[in-house]
Amino acid sequence: MKKLLYLLIVFFLGFASQAQIVAEATLKDSLVNVKDESINYQNQTLDDLSWHGRRFKVSAGVFFPTNNTEVEVGSNNGEFGNLIDFEKDLGFNKNTVSFAAAFEWRISRRSRLGTEYFYLKRTASKVLQREIEFGDHVYPVDARVSAFMDNQIYRLVYGYAFISKPTYEIGALIGAHVMFADVGIRLEGNTAQAEYRDNFDFTAPLPDLGLWGEFVLADKWGLYVNANYFALKVDNVDGRLLSYNLSVLYNVYKNFSITAGYTGLNIRVDVERERLNGFFKWGYNGPTIAATYAFGGRVKLYKH
Q1: Which of 75, 226, 267, 296 would give a disulfide with 55, using CB separation of 3.0 to 4.6 Å?
Q2: What pLDDT does residue 232 have?
Q3: How far is the C-alpha of 210 from the C-alpha of 176, rounded, in Å?
Q4: How far, in Å, CA of 304 to CA of 115, rounded?
Q5: How many Cα atoms within 13 Å fall on the side-chain side of residue 182?
C-alpha cells in the first residue's frame, strides 16, 4: 500500500512538473504571438492611412480672418502723414472671407518643400470723422472717401524633421513670405475736378524661421501645428513677421481629407523710397477650412 502511494506521489509530481513546463512554453509562445500580432497590426494600420506620409499634398479652402490694419504714408516732400486705422477711420470690415491654397512635396523621409498662397481684397466707403493726411493730399472732416486694400501673400518654406516617427514628426522650418500690397484712398467729389486720390504699393520679402509638428491621433485624425518669426531689413524694406497655425485633419475617404484650423499672421513693414515713405502694419487671425488631397508614393517612416 505504501509503495502504491509513493508511486502515485512520484507520478503526480512528474505530471505537475511537465505540465508547468508546457504551460510556460505555451504562455511564452502566446506572448510572442500577441506581440507580433500587435506589431503587424500597428504596421498594417499605418499602411492603411492613405492620407499620411504621401509624397505630395495639395489643399484649397477658405479663410475667415479678423483684420487689424494701420497705414501711414508720407508725401513727396518727405513729411509723414498721420497714422490711419483702416477699420476705425475708413470703415473697413474687420471680418472678411478670403481664399487660401497650399502644396507640399515630401522630398525624403525628413525633408519637405511647401508653397502657400493667400489673397485678400477689401474696399470701403465712409464719411470721415477726422482729417486724414495720406500721400500728397489732406482729406478733410465730413468728406466722403473710398478706400481699397489688395494683399497677396506667397510663401515658400523648407521643413526638416529632426524627429521622424511613423505616428509623429517634429522639425524646423526656414522660408519666406513675399507680400504684394497696394492701398489707396480717393476723395469722392461732386465733379471730376474735385476728386483726387493717393495710393501706396510695395513688395516685401519677409524671411522667417520656425518649428512644426505633425501627429497621427487616430486612424482618421491628424494634427498639424507650426509657429514662425523673423525680423530683417532687406534693401529699403524693414519688416517683422509672426505667424502661427493649428489645424486638425479628418480623413473622409482614402486620400481625401478635410482640415479645419486656426491661423494668424502679424506683419509690420517700413518702406523707404526716394520720394515716398510708408509704414504698414497688418494683422489677421481666424478659422480656416480646406479640402486636402494626398497622392504619390508613401515615404518610408521608421520606428527607430
Answers
A1: 296
A2: 78
A3: 11
A4: 30
A5: 7
Return the bridge partners of 124, or none: 147
Are 82 and 133 contacting, i.e. CB atoms less than 8 angstroms apart?
A: yes
* DSSP code per residue over 176-231: EEEEEEEEEEEE--SSGGG-EEEEEEEEEEEEEEEEEEEEEEETTEEEEEEEEEEE
H helices of the chain, in order, are 2-47
Quick: pLDDT tens for 131-141. Answer: 998 888 889 99
Helix/strand/coil (H/E/C) assignment for every residue in 249-276: EEEEECCEEEEEEEEEEEEEEEEECCCC
Residues 127, 143: Cα–Cα separation, whole Å: 5
Q: Which cell is 288 given?
A: 480656416
Q: Report how far residue 70's alpha carbon sits from residue 215's, in angstroms, rounded to the nearest whole number.
A: 37
**For residue 83, is pLDDT > 60?**
yes
Rg (CA), the chain: 32
* The CA-based dihedral angle spanning residues 80, 85, 90, 92, taken in that order and rounded to the nearest 10 degrees: 140
Which of 184, 177, 189 is CA-nearest to residue 152? 177
The answer to whether residues 263 and 63 touch, using CB atoms and an 8 Å cutoff, is yes
Alpha-carbon dihedral of residues 125, 128, 132, 138, nearest 10 degrees?
A: 90
Is 50 exceeded by the pLDDT of residue 162? yes
